[in-house]
Design goal:
This protein is 50% helix and 1% strand. The chain contains 13 helices and 2 strands. The chain has 2 domains: 110 residues, Endonuclease Iii, domain 2; 105 residues, Orthogonal Bundle (Endonuclease III, domain 1), CATH 1.10.340.30. With 271 residues, the chain is mainly α. Helix 4 crosses helix 6, helix 5 packs across helix 6 and helix 9 crosses helix 11. Strand 1 and strand 2 form a beta hairpin.
Amino acid sequence: MPSFAGRYYPLSLGAMARPFRKAEVESFFARLKAQMPDPRTELEFKNPYTLLVAVVLSAQATDKGVNKATEPLFKVADTPEKMLKLGEARLISYIKTIGLFRTKARNVIALSKALVDGHGSVVPRSREELQALPGVGRKTANVVLNVAFGEPTIAVDTHIFRVANRTGLAPGQTPEAVEAGLERAVPPEYKLNAHHWLILHGRYTCVARKPKCPLCVVRDLCRYRPKTTEAELGPLMSRAAMTPTSPGSAAPGDSPHRRPRRLPAASSRRA
């Protein structure tokens, strides 16, 4: 079974079933769009630089945990210069609740210095330049390009890797293979938000251990077998939430439709 970040996902028939037809892919994303018309990242940020830092910190961590750490951090360090002035030791005091915090602190300080020294303190807009920064891989670069600069990139994390394989939408053995498959499959008009739709679908509906198939708006298109049932999911599911296109498609207490604001257009252009 394909693995990603040390985790294995039961694909059942998803990756081996009949490939999606063009009309099915169109319907897949049209339904996700109807359910989530304005999807956004759940990471809190103020500008392209704080987005970059937040994404670096989010590796092997939850967005909720990162947001809890960065809320006070970004009040004192929301530019590369301020982060360098803060220093690695004080940065650690803000992010010590996040996994791998020492390595991440080193990377954040190093990338901040690289931005000041080589980019005029501005976050670059090319994947190559972003990936040259310490601690920045392809996934992080794709997120920044998409969220900060409006590029139609698709960053493949564990959620998207799982959804692409489980549904059969874009099966692949590696994140790179899945990304390439999604690039080929996703219609141009859906590509800008495809990353957000897929990650939110994987985070709240097509979850790892027991997908919430009765709540899934694309369950008839999905190649995964066997589907879970309402009886299997038990009290987690309420009758009121069973309408596929309802905004209440997340588990009680979850809120995939509560999003932080987007970057102002001017900020995106400057960065």
